[in-house]
Amino acid sequence: MMVIKLCSKLKSVRYFVTFISLLLLTGCWSRIEINDHAFVTAMYIDYPEEGVYEVSLGFPLPNRMSTGMGLSGTAKGNPYSIVTKRGESIPVAIRKIRSDLSREISWGHCRVIVVGRKMAEFGINQLLEFTAREPNFHTKSFLFVSPTSGRDIGNLTPVFERLPSEVLREYAQRNVTLGATIKDFLEAEASGGDMVTGLLTIGQTEMVSEEGKMSTWVGTDGAALFRSGVMVGTLDVIGMRAGLWLNGKMKSSMNSIKSPTDGKTISFLIQTSNSSIKPWINGDQFGFDIHIEADNDVLSSESNIDLMDPEQLKVLEELLSEQLKGRILRTLQTTQSEEVDVFNFGRILGWRYPKVWQQMKGNWREHYKKCEFHVSTQIFVKRTGAEKNAVIRNIKE
User: Fold this and answer.
1) How many independent structural domains does the chain possess?
2) Which of 208, 235, 262 is where one domain is finished?
3) In this structure, what are the phi and psi dihedrals at residue 3, rounded to the nearest 5 degrees?
4) pTM of the full predicted structure?
5) Per-residue pLDDT, 395
6) Considering only CA atoms, which of 49, 158, 76 is closest in space to residue 112?
7) Cα distances (Å, whole numbers) of residue 296 to 173, 212, 313
């Protein structure tokens, strides 16, 4: 009798497990097939006239992404498309784009946002509002500023990449420029709203890859300074690179100085770098101690200086250190004159002295104009190469 009851219970458990397994195999009633998705890879936003936003979305074209199509064996046309609409707000413009697409917009692959200069000077707060509320939007998407319109950047010719957005993403990931993300802008709002991001440059040139046709190229330039979501100024290329030093993101870069012996150029390649920023308070005075270290290799030399002489090498290290220190101080002075704490010194002060920050944060920009910066730099030349002097000079001799 007990055996029969045990078998009955085991059968009931088996039915229950089978039923649960069948439930797990069921699909989602609201899912959208992958063939019905239009994947956004880039977003370009402009403010062409009062009360009007222009939104352009970049999409890859799956039917043109692979080769072997058609009689010629290759797909014709660009493997991407850009759709543009205008509206009284960014969501309205996007809704108009969605109405004209045969697929549903998917934000999961969007990693680049470009705003036109006019839009940046008007303010990007509505953009931040949209990206913060859209659940499928990645806040780690990089934001750049175009010197003209954002839509112009979408016309660039991606020579080494498949899509224009991949070119811009590589600029940020390789630290060629200051690559601020939407997340950085949103976090900056909690400590005053000041931020800095990369400024692009655009032009027309003949490209061999495009059979000598005039094509649009896009490169990196300086940086755009934002105060509470509004662009208020810029940094030149040297200032932008100083920002990379302050953020600890300067990697594999080159810099040059004039030789102290004959005034000829010596170029160095930065291999590693690190930076530290520490706040200090002394009575009514306060400021920040900034220390930067880097290891350099000699890349080329046109000078007759003896690179094997430790004393002369020390002179070069001092010149490199002074050059970097001057650039850092000049950049900080620019941000102070613009009253924008784009490198988040206020946040650093708040971490170390929370009570002092509570007293200052309401009027932080006024305090930031007066704070002192003590900058120390140490550049070490680790490798000089096998040649003692300039190779060309040795050959002539």
Assistant:
1) 2
2) 235
3) -65, -40
4) 0.84
5) 47
6) 158
7) 22, 38, 12
